[in-house]
Amino acid sequence: MQSTLSPRIADSSQSQALKLSSLHPSVTSNFKRILDIGGSLIGLLVLAIVFVPIAIAIKLDNPGPIFFVQKRCGLQGQVFHLVKFRSMVTNADELKAQIKNEAKGLIFKNRQDPRITRVGKFLRKTSLDELPQFWNVLMGDMSLVGTRPPTIDEVSQYSDRHWQRLNVKPGITGEWQVNGRSAIEDFEQIVDLDLRYQSRWTPLYDLFVIFRTLYVVFARVGAF
Mean pLDDT over all residues of the chain? Predict the structure, then answer.
């Protein structure tokens, strides 16, 4: 179930109307939605095939939940529950304050993050941890192609420029994925890429990004 992120979204009826008027054409594209549904069904089929061995590996490596569920902000700041395979220890959130943030701006990255499990490192490098997000795509909270879905604490610090990236749905992949992936450590660069996607978007451009993503994933470009 979605909820709306306050206080930014609900600050006034005027600002709400402004945000609604700034929705990107991709949001109402029937082609994009059909592509999302078809792609998510294929992704969920792959998930069904690999689920058992991944689940067993996660449990044996670090006992705890198989899935990692976290509140993220989507289109226009709507809050949804993002689902991934768990790649960190179960108390990762409590340990976050002890880990140095190597990124610049409103993202958190650490190449040698000790919270990541052995199986988690493999899942991240192969992007297998992302497979459960196809459920988010099928439900309409996400798209195959879009922005990196930010956390609530990140969005609470957004400027007007940063908010523009939420004019499209968050995606499993996007410009950041095919132009550096985890190697991008400057949030402003991510914003630049997200806004570039919005300016370039066409239905065919989504297909282009998807095909480039397949290459990036299989070649493990920029993954850690």
Answer: 88
